[in-house]
Amino acid sequence: MRIFLTVWIGQVISLFGSKLSEFALGFWMLEQTYRDTGRISQFALIIFLIYLPKVIVSPIAGVLIDRWNRRSAMILSDGATCIVTLIIMLLALSDKLAVWHIYLAVTITSTFNAFQLPAYTAAIAQLVPPKQYSRANGMVQVSSGIAKIASPLVAGILMKLIALEGILTIDLITFFIAIFTLISVRFPTVKRMRKRRQVTMEGLLTETILGWKYIAVKPGLLKLLSFIAISYFSNGMLEVILWPLLYQPNSTERLGTILSIGGFGILVGSVLISVWGGAKNRVKTIMTCVAIQGIVILTASFKISLVIMALGIFVYLFCHPIIISSNQAIWQSKVPSRLQGRVFSLQQSLERGLAICAYSIAGPLVDGVLNPLMAENGLLANTIGKFIGGEIGQNQGIALLLLLLGILNLLTVILAYQEPRLRFLEKELPDRNLSSLDLSSVKSS
């Protein structure tokens, strides 16, 4: 547990720096793309690029993570992102930073980050005992909560004091701290499935398929994966519309404050799951939290105001770490350690793939379909338009999207609860008894 705590502290500091840069660069992007046009498609593209490389690279990254030392995979990811951040800082200092630089930088860092989360998640199973999985995953979510609370407020102030360049410098320092903590520890050795072979594309593809076979022959895990993927779709939509919804030209205070309130929700939820350890039936916990999120989204669509948005974001993000920690604890308990890198990477790839769909359609959907429907003479302006929306600008199209997302979440929970293999997943599969399975003989039947 001591090694995990050391790594965790380094990642907390690094994540805080990354969130500072994320806020600063995100606001800079809004100033460049949204202020004059009022359209969210260009801003949506950067969120799209955050996740697309992960979907493409994650399956192969997972195989490599299972071959490599997971500490080395995390160092690789942090080191590459550090270099990209340095280049962006130098461009900003020389006043040559352009929107396409951000697109390229996000694509590169996302590619290397495909190694980070699966390696970190798989490392938990190496570094902590099984009974502590939910708590350890909760601590990982705590780091996210801390970053989301502090970074928007701090970044909003620092943007006026030291500008974008100063924030990027702070981010670089936090990367060095994270890399140092990783270098200073050693991870326990993982028993491999077989002797290491020379890395070939054919071999990587075969091992990637092996990870998919493991998921495919476990109906409960496959249904859980599908259920969580729908949640990622909703999250993706909300990520695209939230910043434009709260944006005010030349002002970081309101955006920073609301995002910090949401971050406080993540922190409270993360601390709760870390102390509590989670319910015995984790699947029902996940379903309950997704249902609560659906109700929150649905409520927000009827009254888009600063107070409602702040409260809604708090509750929505309060549920998020409980969902993530419970989900990861199930997978860590059901998947042999030597396969976790590729399985978690495939899980990430499939879940993010659906989120990618959200990122790619959210902008055009709001700009080209929902806004015209809810415009003054639009088809729905005098029906649904009378009941949804609120005081934040002219966001009737976004209000309609919130309504649809809330309904989608609630319907998904109702359908998922009808599936016995999902509802009783943890009773269906005994913990850790699959580690001796010869997966080379697993068939997709």
What is the fourth-level CATH superfamily?
Answer: MFS general substrate transporter like domains
User: Proportion of β residues?
Assistant: under 5%
Q: How many helical elements?
A: 15
CA-atom Rg in angstroms: 22 Å
CATH architecture: Up-down Bundle
Q: Helicity range of the residues?
A: over 70%
Domain unit count: 1
Low-confidence stretches: 429-445
Whole-number average pLDDT? 78
The H-and-E topology, N to C, reads as HHHHHHHHHHHHHHH
Any idea of the CATH topology?
Answer: Growth Hormone, Chain: A
Please identify the oligomeric state: single chain
CATH class: Mainly Alpha
Largest sheet: none
Question: What would you note in describing this structure?
Answer:
78% of the residues lie in helices and 0% in strands. It has 15 helices and no strands. Helix 4 crosses helix 12 (340-374). The chain is globular and about 65 Å long. It has one domain (2-186, 204-430): Growth Hormone, Chain: A (Up-down Bundle). It has 445 residues and is mainly alpha-helical. It starts with a helix and ends in a 17-residue tail after the last helix.
